[in-house]
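Justification of resources, computational component.

The compute hours requested in this renewal are based largely on the per-chain cost of generating structure records like the one below. Each record pairs the submitted sequence with a full structure-token output. That output is archived, and it is also reused by downstream analysis tasks.
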Amino acid sequence: MKRLAILSLFLFGNFLFAESITFTDSVRVIQSEPVYRTIVKRKPYQECWEEEVPVSYNEDYYERDDSSNVGALIGGAAGGILGHQIGKGHGKDAATIGGAIIGTLIGQNMAKTPRYHNEPRERYKIVRRCKTKYIENEEERITRYKNIAIYKGHRIVKYSARPLRRIPITVTIRY
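The structure output for this chain reads:
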């Protein structure tokens, strides 16, 4: 037990009376190596072309038939036949003539009436289309320097933005 007390007093006593010295020094660099990093640059560009595309639409239009003579003939014949069916005796001739005249007028009028059409149609138009592409360039750049020095058998490494000639160090001596 006494030995333990003496040992602890000896160790504790050394700490109480220990001194230290701290100073700065510099060490000569023996090697500086550049540290590279690969950087990829992407430059965008547009690739464009023209393309013909279909466009659907409904076309509304009126069509006029100038075949009024054909309509008059057909209407006259139909009216004459109907008039002949209606009349009796001598009135049959008058009904036939009247029916032919009225049928002619109706047929001629119908042939001159424009007809409405709504037809789906397809046309083509030119459309400009573009696509973004990239040109990639890889580039090696120096990002920093690895500076190496030796101090009393210890290897010291310090990274910096430029190569160094000397590395500053802080030395502490305890006794």
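The two ends are 28 Å apart (CA to CA). The mean pLDDT is 80.
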